[in-house]
Amino acid sequence: MTARSDEGQASSRLPFSGGLCGGVLLSRRLRLDPLAVADIERLHDIWIDPQVRRHLFDDEVVTQTWLGEEVERSQESFATSGYGSWCVRRRGESRIVGFVGLRCFRGADEPQIYYGLDPQCWGEGFATEAVEAVTHLAFQHLGFTRLLAGTDEPNLASQRLLDRLGMDRVEERPAESRATRFYALTREGYEKLTLRLRPDSASARSGKDKIEIRLYRSTDFRAVEHLWQEMFPSSTPYHQPEQSVRLKIADSPDLFFVADAGEGVVGTVLAGWDGHRGWIYSLAVEPRRQRQGIARRLLSRAVEALEERGCPKVGLQVRANNQAVVAFYQEMGFVVEERVSMGMRVGIGDPP
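and the corresponding structure tokens:
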């Protein structure tokens, strides 16, 4: 079972780059430690969070006693099989931000990967990074020939994460409350994925895998301002970068994403959520960086962030004469709807 993911940064670093030392897994930003008794209280807070548990163990509110038994099961599994469950921390920090593990569910003989994150840490790519580290362990150190994962049918964010890892959907089991979808990654699939994304691959040589999709920071403003002035030169006064950024940060900073190429921001996207529908705004990529998949990654990350909030539908607007952009969004799954677009200026700012 997989809880909510964050995802969207699988290509921002080398695939499956975890290192193993005494049961501890290390990735670029994370440290994964085998579950310990001292972790129970903090893990319990995460496991009973309504946003986490709704896709984990059928929304059951587990007790600390049960979690203590889970720690014992994990320790026994490490001793006998070399795998179990880990708590997830940022490297150099003590606070637990999530969990990930390999575990047999409901009497099954084959372990599945499962994970969950503190909702406050969604959107940082931690779930993807933790799952990658465990996947690397399974195939490179434990001799797995296949890795399984199961997720509830409504959990689209986790399904996207599993798709990014190259997993194929192999089965769907109906249930009284919700169906469970099962995914599998074979050793052949794992090797193809690591070959495609390794540092000396064509995508690495082109610089694509150096792009990180992350949240906007205040230090990004000048780069964002320059990008928007270049890509949206005819914007009306009330859409000027300084005001747009200020209002976005005041309202929903966790829905403002940028593409960071290391030397600076090369792309942006804003997502909006009003509790009823989601919207996409200001998707832009520097001309020299276009046709490298950056816009697709930005858009996918914004859509995932909206899905994490329970958004049922995402909309956007494109100028009617911009057929190239219309075609791009159609390739991403959007459809043209017969609507009349209307607007009315309210509040602050100069009139159009």
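(Above: one complete record from the training split.) Residues 154 and 266 are 33 Å apart (CA to CA).
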